[in-house]
Amino acid sequence: MHTTQNPDVWMNGLFVPWDQACVHPFCHGLQRGSVVFESIDCNETINGKAAIFRLREHMIRFENSAGIIGMELDYKLESLMHAVIDTVARSGLKSCVIRPLAFYADPVMDVYPGDASIMVAIGLAESHEPPETYKVTISRFHKIDNACMPVKAKVSGNYINPMISKTEAKKAGFDDAILLDKDGYVAEGSTSNIFIVENNKLITAPEDSILLGITRDTIMAMAQKLSVEIIQEKFNAERLKHADEAILCSSGKEVTPIVQVDESIIGDGNPGTITKLLRSYYRDIIEGHVADFEDWLTYIQ
Ligand SMILES: Cc1ncc(COP(=O)(O)O)c(C=O)c1O
């Protein structure tokens, strides 16, 4: 990102110029990864206004993530949502990625944060078109397990596992890594949920070993409208490799077709029919074309 034109950062209720939004290098959040965060998309809609997609659901997950790691936020849900809206409105941006963070901001050497103060910060970054297609590899690392880390918390410390997996995947010429759970079933992409299509049915990993993605939930709602059956069940890497279609989804990736898993080509190597349908429906929703899902859009006035 360029530093000259970057929008101001909201920090505990104050707007701070991007270049002055600083923390102590020994703050607990930086040392231990005790940073709760979200990634939320804001898009330009058909009426020319910016709209944040599923803001409430993202900020509920933000609060839940904090609760799971025992971090007590000083802000209620509505205040957090307003802070996000104010940050976007102030920037004048029509489309962007919104990144709220909450972290222990005091320098603390112990793993126990004690009564360290908590900083909530909201920053914006440039948004990009979702990828056209993805080639993925199965990671040699398993997805972190609920028995050691709370997988439902979107907390930075959980992301070293997918960071290493994706770095290895990139080095091997793939776009992303797929992580299996401890029993060898497909769990997630590095920062995305996964669906396969078999016989015109959508299948996705059940809730236990994954981050509950808001895009995953959106896909399930779209599928219902389109009368596409959804099954939540465990499936292994072989089933993924032999699926008719496969999808990675997240707020940034939206609905991204997987066209290759290691040496296996998915379908005919091009995005499949259901994937294409969901991808364009998703775009229509976030751009405000679909009245049934207008409630998911928070317009910036
Ligand atoms: C581990 C993980 N799984 C799934 C997702 C997808 O979540 P969402 O659709 O809410 O962006 C993310 C998003 O970053 C993620 O980090």
Overview of this protein structure:
- By secondary structure, the chain is α+β, with helices and mostly antiparallel strands.
- The chain folds into 2 domains: 9-125, Aminotransferase class 4, branched-chain amino acid transferase, N-terminal domain (D-amino Acid Aminotransferase, Chain A, domain 1, 2-Layer Sandwich), CATH 3.30.470; 134-286, D-amino Acid Aminotransferase, Chain A, domain 2.
- Helix content is 26%, strand content 28%.
- It has 7 helices and 17 strands.
- The chain has helices at 28-32, 55-68, 77-91, 160-171, 214-225, 237-241, 273-286, and strands at residues 9-11, 14-16, 35-37, 40-44, 50-53, 96-104, 118-125, 134-142, 176-180, 186-189, 193-198, 201-204, 230-232, 245-250, 254-261, 264-265, 297-299.
- The strands form 2 sheets. Strands 8, 9, 10, 11, 12, 13, 14, 15 and 16 form a 9-stranded mixed sheet that branches.
- The two termini are 26 Å apart.
- It binds pyridoxal-5'-phosphate.
- The site of pyridoxal-5'-phosphate has 12 residues, from helix 5.
